[in-house]
Amino acid sequence: MSRPSKPRPGGGRGPKGRRKRPDAKAPSLTVQVSIDKLGAQGDGLAKASILSRPQTLYIAGALPGEVVLAQTVSKRGDGLVAQLIEVQQASPLRKEPGCPHFNTCGGCALQHLELNAYAAFKRDRVVQALVQRGFQNPPVTEPILTGEGTRRRVIFTAQKRGKLVLFGYNAHASHDIVAVNRCPLLVDSLNALIEPLNQALNSILKDGERTRVHVTACENGADVMIEGSETPGLAAREALATFVQSTDAVRVSWKEDGQNPEPIAQESPPMIYLSGVPVELPPGAFLQASVEGEHAIRDAVLAGIGPKAGRVADLYCGLGSFSIPLAQQVIVDAVDATEAPVKALERAAGRAGLGGRVKAQVRDLDRQPFDGKELAKFDAVVFDPPRSGAAEQVSRLAGADVDRVVGVSCNPATFARDARILVDGGYELLSVQPIDQFTYSPHVELVAHFSR
């Protein structure tokens, strides 16, 4: 799962996000280097002597085995960021990117990498994280790739400049905006909203004002949430109402800093389907990035639970991507720290006749994890935490007598830490399935199976 603290488009380094800002300025030097490997962020890594000092160079767009000309531009940690000037000797793994914005947009890091090598990179990210935690030959399978045209949620960046609005994504390692009228990663219905959103924002934003626009493709239309510094006035509300009436959007919400989103205009509640069950999407709620990814994760979770479980805990349950399909087979205790998705799950389960099989509660598992006594009543446990992982809850699990545990994660590093805790507590790591919802980015999700 990828809640707001996880990688997402337009924030962090997700498919439409931007890389971590370089730390500081560095001497501007042009160097010829050979690329050794891909780094964790998809940059080509090279070694070079800069001002008589060995340095690691991070070069976006460069591939292993290539000889490139690059210019150092800034510091990053203990190395230097360098801008690719020319590929002098290309790798056989290089392919022509399909998007005209690839060299400037900050979203796609690996669109130029051949598919098999790209899949190997995703798998290796998971393998290396586990190896660093002491796992030898970890049981990591080949990744499931969702591909282009599948992303159903996205975050755009927009800024009013004079009479025009720049609408698109952040440029690579920059606050600059790359204007786009189509993104190959998105489902068609989201691409169709780019121009209407641009026009609506042009009538709302003040000159120089900047915002982020969250858009989710639902079953009955798009759900839009705009981040704003102040409450919209009457003219803005009328413009957003017109936008909803004239497009595929079914709701527009406005979110001020530190406040819950406020619905501004709504034709009907945005609806999604989780394993065939209709669920109303609360404003700003998390949803898996693609239907294909959601199904891949769900199927791997169900396979890990197995057919013999009678009662399952779904920890960090969100809207119920796992609770709803599990409840069709077993009794589920669904737990999450955020009230809105838990209530949406309860209502959806009730409408589907699963109310007696889903016991939902609001509880912060980082501050109040289930203890051994509470865990003892479950035959299996699923946990799907934010990027920071579930160290407190996993520590309790490691000492509990639960036969099967399924871990879902979008952060291989924190997952490997949590997996180490479970294995040290007596569990066996049976398998790890990488799942790539964030196409062309360095991010990868996974589902892991553990047993006593």
Automatic annotation (TrEMBL):
<keyword id="KW-0489">Methyltransferase</keyword>
<dbReference type="Pfam" id="PF05958">
    <property type="entry name" value="tRNA_U5-meth_tr"/>
</dbReference>
<feature type="active site" description="Nucleophile">
    <location>
        <position position="410"/>
    </location>
</feature>
<dbReference type="InterPro" id="IPR030390">
    <property type="entry name" value="MeTrfase_TrmA_AS"/>
</dbReference>
<keyword id="KW-0411">Iron-sulfur</keyword>
<protein>
    <recommendedName>
        <fullName>TRAM domain-containing protein</fullName>
    </recommendedName>
</protein>
<keyword id="KW-0004">4Fe-4S</keyword>
<keyword id="KW-0949">S-adenosyl-L-methionine</keyword>
<feature type="binding site">
    <location>
        <position position="384"/>
    </location>
    <ligand>
        <name>S-adenosyl-L-methionine</name>
    </ligand>
</feature>
<keyword id="KW-0808">Transferase</keyword>
<feature type="binding site">
    <location>
        <position position="288"/>
    </location>
    <ligand>
        <name>S-adenosyl-L-methionine</name>
    </ligand>
</feature>
<feature type="active site">
    <location>
        <position position="410"/>
    </location>
</feature>
<dbReference type="GO" id="GO:0070475">
    <property type="term" value="P:rRNA base methylation"/>
</dbReference>
<dbReference type="GO" id="GO:0070041">
    <property type="term" value="F:rRNA (uridine-C5-)-methyltransferase activity"/>
</dbReference>
<dbReference type="InterPro" id="IPR029063">
    <property type="entry name" value="SAM-dependent_MTases_sf"/>
</dbReference>
<dbReference type="InterPro" id="IPR012340">
    <property type="entry name" value="NA-bd_OB-fold"/>
</dbReference>
<keyword id="KW-0408">Iron</keyword>
<dbReference type="InterPro" id="IPR010280">
    <property type="entry name" value="U5_MeTrfase_fam"/>
</dbReference>
<feature type="binding site">
    <location>
        <position position="339"/>
    </location>
    <ligand>
        <name>S-adenosyl-L-methionine</name>
    </ligand>
</feature>
<keyword id="KW-0479">Metal-binding</keyword>
<feature type="region of interest" description="Disordered">
    <location>
        <begin position="1"/>
        <end position="28"/>
    </location>
</feature>
<comment type="similarity">
    <text>Belongs to the class I-like SAM-binding methyltransferase superfamily. RNA M5U methyltransferase family.</text>
</comment>
<feature type="domain" description="TRAM">
    <location>
        <begin position="20"/>
        <end position="86"/>
    </location>
</feature>
<dbReference type="GO" id="GO:0051539">
    <property type="term" value="F:4 iron, 4 sulfur cluster binding"/>
</dbReference>
<dbReference type="InterPro" id="IPR002792">
    <property type="entry name" value="TRAM_dom"/>
</dbReference>
<feature type="binding site">
    <location>
        <position position="316"/>
    </location>
    <ligand>
        <name>S-adenosyl-L-methionine</name>
    </ligand>
</feature>
